[in-house]
Amino acid sequence: MFFKRSVPVTIAFVCGVLQVLDYFFKWGIVNKAAQETRAWVALVAVFALGLGAVNVLRVHLRRVQQNPVKNATSVLLLITFLVTIFIGLTAGQSSKPYKFIFDYIIVPTGSAIFSLLAFYIGTAAYRAFRARTLEAGILLVTGCIVMLGKVPLGEKILPFAPKWTTWIMQVLNVGGQRGVMIAGAIGFIAVSLRIITGLDRHTYGVE
Amino acid sequence: MGILEKLQNLDKRVFYLLMALAIAIPTIWPLGLEVSITPPVRKTYEFVESLPAGSVVLIGFDYEPGDEIELSPQAKALFRQFAAKRIKVVTVASFPVGPMFADECLRVLKDLGYEYGLDYVNLGYYAGGESTLAAFAKDPSSIFTKDWYGNDVSSLPLMQQIKSMADFSMAMTLNDGPTGGTGTHEWVRQSVMAHGTPFVIGCTGVLAANNMPYLDAGQVRGVLSGLRAAAEYEKLVGIKGDATRGMDAQSMGHVLIVLFVLLGNVGMVFARRRSNGGEKR
């Protein structure tokens, strides 16, 4: 219990209180300690990244061992994973081969997957955007105005669309978003306090 | 099935085909539609214009390949304005692929006569999101000892001028949302609130709504959202780049979606009227 709960809670409490004090006061030793703990976060995050990579390797190696034919995508993943790491470590990340992988494999595949959204969102909008109620009708009209107001061809079709879009975004949207942000920030403070003081048991893996 | 029912249930393959054509045709044969300048983009441009020549700015390349098409053109257009004022640039990235995008965009500055280490620096990737950005903001050398190319950061003349976030005349993030990197809210907290550094947001189109409150409250000096903002910026700096060309395809895509949504609704309204009429009879 001591190592599972008391130690993590104490570390979280010390680190959390340090950050709060550092923000509001200029106390040499506190400021220095807070800066030091922030720099540690980068190290911990890099370690987590490495752990993630090892986990990906383990999961896909197991799949390949079970059935390499059925899990051909895992074989492909392992090959590209290892080749990219090998080139990155030996030739460097600004080398030509690494740039080749980035420019001709990573960017086009990433963009291609993302661009499919245009098709899926389009058909989803066509099927779901129906003015069955007054609220749905308002949403539909607002959505169409904003979509047209954001593109030059829309301006040609509805000349008032850009002005209305700006008004919708900067008045109606800002009012709603501001409420969400303030509520979210208050919730964030409450959750942070619970974690720092050890009241939030789930954060520390306690059921 | 009558025409009204058909209008409500068009085969999605028809839509896919039309969408592919709507994007492909203007990409091959551009329409050359003019974009008008919106207030958030004008504000950003005017703020950068107001910076003294030779200022140093920090740019965060916080996006992944899927959003490159919206955000890289923003960076390239901004860099042209920076070059005209000889503004120096330091880049960081909260995604592992970010430094590669920075490297590609910084080529604009290199082609315009900028010298690495003296006028621009690509510091590379940092892990840890907001906490690491906070540490960087207080003391950049505590996070980066080597730049993206492996040079000692302390040996770079530009970095010798930078002791904290407050030494930057402007900070900016090119951001695709809180999906693993440092989000726009985190940047606002660490640059504007903690150090008072003027801040500009460059984000994807879908994030525009989330970030408008900052502009309205005066916490950020400008918001560039999506490809549209990049096209507007290209117009302001007098170039016709990827964003200007992409706007034609985006125009057709948006209009097609609106058209389909309207068709579906027209079909629904008339079908409902017909069924109501039938019931009355």
Describe this structure in words.
- The complex is a heterodimer of chains A (207) and B (281).
- With 207 residues, chain A is mainly α.
- Chain A is built from seven helices and no strands.
- Among the domains of chain A are: 1-71; 132-197 and 199-203, no CATH class.
- Helices cover 83% and strands 0% of the residues of chain A.
- In chain A, helix 1 (2-24) crosses helix 2 (28-66) and helix 5 packs across helix 7.
- The longest helix of chain A has 39 residues, at 28-66.
- Chain B is α/β, with parallel strands linked by helices and 281 residues long.
- Chain B starts with a helix and ends with a helix.
- Chain B has eleven helices and six strands.
- In chain B, strand 4, helix 8 and strand 5 form a beta-alpha-beta unit.
- Chain B has a six-stranded parallel sheet with strand order 3-2-1-4-5-6, with helices on both faces.
- Chain B has two domains: 3-30 and 247-280; 39-240, Rossmann fold.
- Chains A and B meet through helix 2, helix 4, helix 5, helix 6 and helix 7 of A and helix 2, helix 5, helix 6, helix 9 and helix 11 of B.
Give a short summary of the structure.
The complex is a heterodimer of chains A (207) and B (281). Chain A has helices at 2-24, 28-66, 72-90, 96-128, 134-149, 152-157, 161-196.
Task: Jot down its keywords.
heterodimer; A: mainly alpha; 0% strand; extended; B: 281 residues; alpha/beta; Rossmann fold; 2 domains; six-stranded parallel beta sheet; 54% helix
